[in-house]
Amino acid sequence: MRLTPLQVFSGCAVVLALVTSACKAEEPPPTPAAVTNPVDPATAGSITGMVKFEGKAPAAQAITMDSDPYCEKQPKNTIESVVVGDGSGLQNVFVYVKEGLRDRVFPVPSTPVVLDQKGCRYVPRVLGIQVGQTLEIASSDNTLHNVHALPQQNREFNMAHQLAGIKHTHVFSTKEVMVPFKCDVHKWMNAFLGVLDHPFYGVTAGNGHFELKGLPPGTYTVEAWHEKLGTQTQMVTVGEKQASDISFTFKG
């Protein structure tokens, strides 16, 4: 049976509508409108501190990567779940303001946060981002990876990265601490992402130090999160132009 031009046009319109609908279903949620920073820089303070590990630091444990010849050649092959550096500083602790900002609304940064797959690792292992900010997920490895995010409050996603240079982007719609990432191809690959509605977060460096800048004067609950050692919270008051210092100690 020969279709009339009207029938052909109608069929194409239906297909186009279905394709458009499917594409829309995969789009990230809209980025919140940018607003002016509600903090007066003339009075802003900061919170600085250190996270320490108490006890004997765990010995480095080797990872068997022989399931993938590319990964097997990579120089770094030990577990990174507990990393202790100089002065017993604990690395990869996510420190953030949990309470006290009194519903202030903060601008969304235009610069993306980058999560790379490099040397058959997620780099960095722990990172933070704001709701509405773009997460750029890249691969520097010439082997198959898949990025599998397992949030509880946001949308789960799973995407394959077959070659170096591939990039995807994602935008989170609501705050969540923390969102775990894994690679279903390489079981040792893990990362953790803190999603917040404000910019006051940091990740401890190799010496355990962190800094939260540009805070308005006030009293805050600050939480330190570690993937294996749990969480700790402290109350701290920040005065005008004041740098308040706090510390956390996790026991092995």
Low-confidence stretches: 1-28
Counting DSSP E segments of at least 2 residues, the number of strands comes to: 16
N- to C-terminal separation? Answer: 76 Å
CATH topology heading:
Immunoglobulin-like
Q: Roughly what is the average pLDDT, rounded to an integer?
A: 87
Strand order of the largest sheet: 5-11-10-7-8
Helix content: 10-25%
Looking at the structure, what is the overall shape? globular
Helix-strand sequence: HEHEEEEEEEEEEEEEEE
CATH class: Mainly Beta
Summarize the structure.
With 252 residues, the protein is mainly beta.
Q: What secondary-structure arrangement, pairings included, does this model have?
A:
Blueprint: H1 5-26, E1 45-54, H2 69-72, E2 94-99, E3 113-117, E4 122-123, E5 126-130, E6 134-139, E7 145-149, E8 157-161, E9 167-171, E10 176-182, E11 190-196, E12 201-203, E13 209-215, E14 218-226, E15 230-238, E16 243-251
Parallel strand pairs: 1-16, 3-6, 5-11
Antiparallel strand pairs: 1-13, 2-12, 2-14, 3-4, 6-9, 7-8, 7-10, 10-11, 14-15
Explained architecture:
With 252 residues, the chain is mainly β. The protein has a single domain (31-251), classed as Cupredoxins -  blue copper proteins (Immunoglobulin-like). The protein is 10% helix and 40% strand. The protein is built from 2 helices and 16 strands. The protein has helices at residues 5-26, 69-72; strands spanning 45-54, 94-99, 113-117, 122-123, 126-130, 134-139, 145-149, 157-161, 167-171, 176-182, 190-196, 201-203, 209-215, 218-226, 230-238, 243-251. It has a 5-stranded mixed sheet with strand order 5-11-10-7-8, with no helix packed on it. A 4-stranded antiparallel sheet has the order 12-2-14-15, with no helix packed on it. Strand 3 and strand 4 form a beta hairpin. The longest helix has 22 residues, at 5-26. Residues 1-28 have low confidence and may be disordered.
